[in-house]
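Q: Fold this one first, please.
A: Sequence and structure below.
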Amino acid sequence: MKLKTKILAGTATLAFLAFAAGSLQAANQVTNLLTITATIQEQGSTNINVHSGVTTVTAPTKFAFNTKQFLALLAQDEHAASNYNSATFPPGAKLVIVVSDSNAPYFCQVVDKNNNFLVDVSNILKFQTNIIFQLYSGKTKNYSFGVGGDPTVTTLHVPTFGFDDSGITNGVGFQCSMVGLMKTTVTYTIVNRSTLVVTTSGRIASFAGAGTNQSTPFLVTGSLNATGRRTFR
């Protein structure tokens, strides 16, 4: 694909397709590193005093939950599903979402510290956005006037991020769905008139959601960041 064709095709789409649905084309993939920081409040226990007839429910149990915990659950689930040969990932493993600059689906994957592929986890992790309701801003370049300038597109959208291992036999039993306003910025930088560098940055400053952990209800709040960079020649 010619350089200016890549930019013209991608400028209007990659910003929101940083996590949208559609068919992945390997030649135009951009891998986004995903980091999650969250707090879970789990339903407290119930105690019934048979002598006084008083029922007491304790306050919700609160604990931190981040990318490291997500990776731990994913390793156990993918191992139970026979998709990965260990119940743990190696130190430094990372959670990524791979996307395209065309109308394509995302892939949720785990890579090692050197960015080598370990396992696809799209069977458990789901990231969806409503491509109809999105707000765009930024600048583009009409490349019929020559290659130059750095197009930048910013998109506001409301994706849903879910974890569901209910289809896995002997899985850890964790399901949740989270939603929040995401701001995604994609910058296309021309280097030496022959190289295109695509930089992506997305953030949900505050998300909220709900789920169950081995059938115990919980609420979750937190933030999510995604960053990526890819060079095309």
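Q: Good. Now the second chain.
A: Here it is, same layout.
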Amino acid sequence: MTKSEIHQRTRRLEVCAEVMQRENGGKLTSVVEIMRKGAEALDQLAGRLAILESRSSGKNERRSSDYSSILDDYEQGDFCEGPSDLHIAEDGEVTVTDRREMTGTVWQGRTLVCRLAANVDLDALRNSLGEEGRCAPLIGRVIAGHSVEWNGRQYIGVLTDDASGAWQDLVDLLHGLPQSEITVWDAAAWLYGERSTPSLVLRNNGLWVDATPERIAAVAREVVEEAVQQKVHLVGGVEAASTVFENAIESVNEETAAEAAYEA
């Protein structure tokens, strides 16, 4: 049965259901419901055929075993805001994403997801995903043995024994990649430490409440540069550090105003 034939039969069922509902004043609800469910099932079948066609086409087009290009948007310095997940979709597409999302296709196993370390060394990851890397043949086996089947309620991803073993080996390999020597810090956590206060943060960095935006930005750049020398990457860089200083100034001003109001 072709997709066109499926769509035609779906429409006929929908029309018949509407006519029967009108002519019988809603008395044949159960029959109409069955017909409508049949139409929904046919519609799902048409969608599934489209997925299979896309999957087949994608696999035929994707003969290269070099997956390193999926990291083209990332540089080593971006690791903390770079890829956090590696995805293998049901059509065989391999991607990385910087957002950790649990979509329906992930829950159903139709999209396979491997979490990556926040400070994974991108050069090591890129080499592993390259044509000569250890990931490429594993990914190929996973794609070859990954299918989507109807379990009576929904479409779910299914792996052959070989694909399942390859997927586990791939996850272990990715989790075992070396991590960058640079550590990741939130700008506020780095500047405040464990027991600091807004006034101390400003004083320790040579700022006060009358600091100009230019002065704040200059100090923020110094903070980021000093962090780099200590092999620390501050998330958000100069902008994030500037925001910490601006919020500290606001907090000190509010505290000063509150004290003045209390004394008055």
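Q: Anything worth noting on the second one?
A: Strands lie at 85-88, 94-97, 112-115, 146-150, 155-159, 183-186, 232-235.
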